[in-house]
């Protein structure tokens, strides 16, 4: 008999100790993979989205599941152009406020853009599985939405024009509240702003630009008798405490964070934490035993029966093997059996046999700028760090600089990162030394730092 996962999620959100570990697989476009639909198909067709979500529910038996994982939904409505791909969510490729310092006046309505697709799928899923599965209403958080609208100029605005950033943040907060209302009206149980770019700013800037908006967001959700989840990506450990202080019921983090350290912070504020099975090295490139072992090892490391939800580190890659997702689910549902199955198992090294030769950093002819990302298409923080690097490259023109672009969804690049000792993504290295770790610089700051290397013009 299937357990009532919704009740389990509700108990955890109420900070009760539980005997079972809640399981929430973040299957966004991966849901489409389960049914043979492309990312574009599953995000543009309500019938396909619903069928894919139902397949997630049947195969992975989630206690909670998101209805849609697309952080570009609102941006598209507000004038951003999107680039679509077959195996990742769309990415923003234009920014309507890039050249003008204006505050939009447009609101978001239930009939706008692709929102009706999500609403229809949500209604059908709620009717079919809502009695025993908690539905998560995910939407773009205000800081990431502000970046979608303004582009990477927003980072310079935070220094040069903070009043504009404050006003834009409040506009984006209003949009977030409108999206939350739509999900609340459709009966979603957990309302979740997803703001991956929060990891790219300092606690000081979070306090200045994000703290009050997020307190307002979580106060609104709480007044509607719903639970909240604050999603963040990247190495956000520096911001976990200030995030907790805004009053979310839960926080979801990715593999960049040491969950033991992060949970010590969230437990002090009695906030639930969710995470953080590695997306590529375990879920995508690992095997069933790797996924089981990660889950049972996590159970050994932290108290998983209080203020904890087990989940992938973020939106699952499109083509994660189904057997791997099911293995993580089985280990969560029955950890004792899983522990016996992997008792003598050692995780495979997915990069075994891949030879990587690093440059002789001490003897470079020209400065070498290396960008390390998870995936600059699927990961918003990676997208904007890449954008800054591209802008710096354009400004430097024919300056003698060498550039490298490495991604954690390619095995050879994973091997390179391990050999260099890259710990967090996205990151920028200059001449083999870490320059920016989960912190996106302004274009001029990056250019100045490169020029400080004493380069010449060709």
Detailed description of the structure:
The protein is globular and about 65 Å long. It folds into two domains: 337 residues, TIM Barrel; 91 residues, Glutaredoxin (3-Layer(aba) Sandwich). Helix 11 links the parallel strand 6 and strand 7. The termini are far apart. It has 19 helices and 13 strands. With 458 residues, the chain is α/β, with parallel strands linked by helices. It has a seven-stranded parallel beta sheet, sandwiched between helices. It is 46% helix and 13% strand.
Write the layout of secondary structure elements.
Blueprint: H1 5-13, H2 29-35, H3 39-44, H4 46-60, E1 64-66, H5 73-77, E2 82-83, E3 91-92, H6 115-129, E4 134-140, H7 142-150, H8 153-160, H9 162-185, E5 190-194, H10 203-223, E6 227-231, H11 240-244, E7 250-252, H12 259-268, E8 272-277, H13 279-284, H14 288-301, E9 308-312, H15 322-333, H16 335-341, E10 368-373, H17 380-396, E11 402-407, H18 411-420, E12 427-430, E13 433-437, H19 443-451
Task: Indicate the mean pLDDT.
Answer: 94
Spatial strand arrangement across the major sheet: 1-4-5-6-7-8-9
Amount of beta strand: 5-15%
At the third CATH level, what is the topology name of the largest domain?
TIM Barrel
Shape: globular
Which CATH C-level class of the largest domain is it?
A: Alpha Beta
Q: What class, by secondary structure content?
A: alpha/beta
Report on the biggest sheet: 7 strands, parallel
Q: What's the gyration radius in Å?
A: 21 Å
Question: How many discrete domains?
Answer: 2
CATH architecture of the largest domain: Alpha-Beta Barrel
Number of strands: 13
Number of helices: 19
Q: Percent of residues in helical segments?
A: 40-55%
What's the N-to-C terminus distance? 71 Å
Low-pLDDT runs? none
């Amino acid at each position: 008999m299937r357990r009532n996962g919704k009740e389990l999620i509700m108990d955890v959100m109420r900070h009760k100790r539980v005997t079972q570990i809640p399981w929430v697989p973040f299957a966004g476009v991966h849901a489409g993979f389960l049914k043979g639909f492309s990312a574009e198909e599953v995000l543009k067709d309500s019938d396909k989205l619903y069928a894919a979500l139902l397949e997630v529910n049947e195969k992975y038996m989630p206690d909670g599941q998101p209805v849609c994982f697309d952080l570009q939904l609102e941006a598209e409505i507000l004038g951003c152009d999107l680039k679509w791909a077959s195996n990742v969510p769309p990415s923003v490729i234009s920014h309507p406020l890039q050249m003008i310092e204006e505050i939009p006046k447009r609101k978001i309505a239930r009939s706008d853009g692709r929102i009706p697709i999500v609403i229809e799928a949500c209604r059908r899923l709620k009717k079919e599985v809502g009695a025993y599965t908690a539905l998560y209403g995910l939407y773009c958080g205000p800081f990431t939405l502000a970046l979608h609208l303004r582009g990477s100029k927003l980072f310079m605005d935070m220094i040069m024009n903070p009043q504009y950033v404050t006003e834009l943040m409040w506009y984006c907060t209003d949009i977030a509240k409108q999206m939350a209302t739509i999900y609340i009206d459709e009966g979603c149980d957990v309302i979740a702003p997803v703001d991956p770019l929060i990891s790219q700013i300092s606690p000081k800037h979070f306090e200045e630009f994000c703290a009050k908006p997020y307190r307002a967001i979580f106060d609104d959700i709480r007044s509607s008798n719903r639970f909240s989840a604050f999603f963040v990506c990247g190495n956000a450990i520096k911001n976990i405490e200030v995030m907790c202080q805004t009053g979310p019921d839960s926080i979801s983090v990715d593999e960049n964070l040491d969950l033991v350290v992060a949970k010590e912070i969230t437990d002090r504020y009695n906030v639930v934490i969710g995470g953080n099975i590695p997306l590529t090295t375990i879920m995508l490139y690992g095997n069933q035993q790797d996924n089981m072992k990660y889950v049972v090892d996590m159970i050994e490391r932290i108290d998983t029966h209080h203020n904890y939800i087990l989940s992938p580190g973020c939106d699952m890659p499109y083509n994660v093997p189904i057997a791997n997702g099911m293995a993580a689910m089985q280990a969560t549902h029955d950890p004792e059996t899983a522990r016996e199955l992997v008792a003598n198992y050692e995780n495979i090294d997915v990069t075994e046999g891949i030879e990587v030769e690093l440059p002789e950093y001490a003897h470079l002819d020209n400065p070498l700028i290396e960008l390390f990302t998870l995936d600059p298409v699927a990961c918003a923080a990676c997208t904007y760090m890449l954008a800054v690097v591209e802008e710096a490259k354009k400004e430097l023109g024919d300056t003698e600089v060498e550039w490298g672009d490495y991604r954690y969804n390619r095995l050879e690049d994973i091997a390179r990162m391990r050999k260099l000792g890259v710990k967090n993504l996205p990151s920028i290295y200059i001449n083999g030394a870490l320059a920016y770790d989960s912190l996106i610089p302004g274009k001029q700051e990056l250019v100045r730092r490169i020029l400080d290397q004493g380069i010449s013009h060709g």
